[in-house]
Hints:
By secondary structure, this protein is of the alpha/beta class. It contains 19 helices and 23 strands.
Amino acid sequence: MRAIKPLLLILLATTACHASAKPAAEFVPQWAKSAVWYQVFPDRFRNGDPSNDPTVADIAGADPMEPPKQWRVHPWGSDWYQLQDYEKANGEPELWKHMQRRRYGGDLQGIIDKLDYLKDLGINAIYLNPVFDSPSHHKYDGASYHHIDPNFGPDPKGDRALMAKENPGDPKTWVWTKADELALTLIAEAHKRGIRVIFDGVFNHMGFNSFALQDVRRNKMKSPYLSWFTIKNFDDPVSGVQFDYEGWWGNKSLPELREDAKGIVSGPKAYIFAATERWMNPKGKGTQHGIDGWRLDVAYMVAHPFWKDWRRHVKAINPEAYLTAEIVNTPDVVKPYLQGDEFDAEMQYNFAFTAAEFLFNEGKYGITAREFDRKLAELRTLYPPGVAYVNQNLFGSHDTNRIGSYIVNRTLGNFRDWGKWFQMSQPINNPEFSVRKPNASELQLQKLFVVLQMTYVGAPMVYYGDEVGMWGGNDPDDRKPMIWPDIAYEKERALPRQNLRPESEADTVVQNLELHAFYRKLIGIRNAHPALQIGSYRTLLADNGDEVFAYERHAGGETLWVILNNSASQRRVRLPRGNFDEFEDLLNDRTYVGQRPEVEFTVPAKQAAVLRANRIPLNAGPVKK
């Protein structure tokens, strides 16, 4: 095995990203640098209260908008692609319609019940996909922003009766439903455990069931909400013309809120501002009782002036609130949103793209260690100070294939080619995308990513279930129900076209406890070492030939080295030891002693080391190697 050339180390050591406790130029909330995020998709996370499960009436208005002939809550442990009898009775050939209609009964009580699970994993921040009143499983088609979906709370019928008595356009009439109160309980219980909570803000569009759109539909030109939308036609029984309006990407279940040069117009803007304050300072009792920030859906589709005004509003309520945006685009397009007057951070898909190109891809889709180093440096230095440390470093989400399934299908294309890969990674549309469970070697690649994610600059975000080995292609397959040990799951044998794999090829659906333990260990290492949260960054090594990448994180008196061996062979790595005498491998429970002027490490293929550099006191005893 080739040793690393010291000259290369000197050249690469110039790439650095430094941070102090709180430089004056920083505008980001400092707590977000130490966040380990966990993304929860509520309907698919945990059914904590079966009594509130939705009915067929509760899904009216969501895609597909035609009512089903038969419907019921879907069995949590059923084979994902296997159509149930009630689905077959609907007689529809399009699989996506069945998938969109499915509801599994996940709710807020289920999240509360599993807060201790998240705490044990090491999670200290939760991003909730939309929880507001909505008929869909994803809830990006909000009927309102000021009420939690009644089916997420303990009394759906009572909540809807209470909501019907208010004027939704007048915040003075707003009531607190039992679902709303349960959301406050969730926030309180999370805060007791040291876990922050942010909500998903979907302010570009509402849903077909929106109180405002339905009022326009009923009252036409007399509606006080007429200016909220771009209306094309009203219903006209004489001519047969039907009610029509501008929908998000033409989707009629997602009516867009109208914008002018200043962004979202005054009517819906005032409503959004009022709903924002409701959840950040509930009942005026103080921000400690409210959410800790927001994730903003399709932020790039709302004009900058709106976000600037909204940020001022948010920060006036809680200066420490965290604002992160969904802007899936090239870094130069993202940059204007992160200048201190709009968002604090982004869901950093460019980190995911770059990691995939180095760790998973080969040939025309792959990049070398040095190119990996260059692209990471571009992302670290692109934004004002502090932003790189609070960006959400993710791989999977509700809008992408899961990391395990990407690795299985990594030869099909490049994740960075977002539009093409988005379509290519949907098994219901692409028969070439494999839906099988990742094997051991593929899960080892996932572990390599987890080491990078938990030790690199930025706030890692885990998509629910990735830590127990869940797999799936893009929407809807990335939204399977969470795997829990107390639920019996059928083997996955059915395929998207309703043919069956041989029984011998069926995938067993159980928690991968070994992978869970790996996530837990890496998250624990991150949480225990401030250098991995707020520390400076320095590249130690980017070796194209050996495919080894190493970097240093430093804060205060603590220094950690991370070594990633991305090759298919074991590598022997030598690095200048500087003033350090021993190196404790926190990941693999080994200790190395420096031999002047270098220290040598052996890293197995597709594995990593996380080393804490120490100085041995003069009176210390012998150190085991």
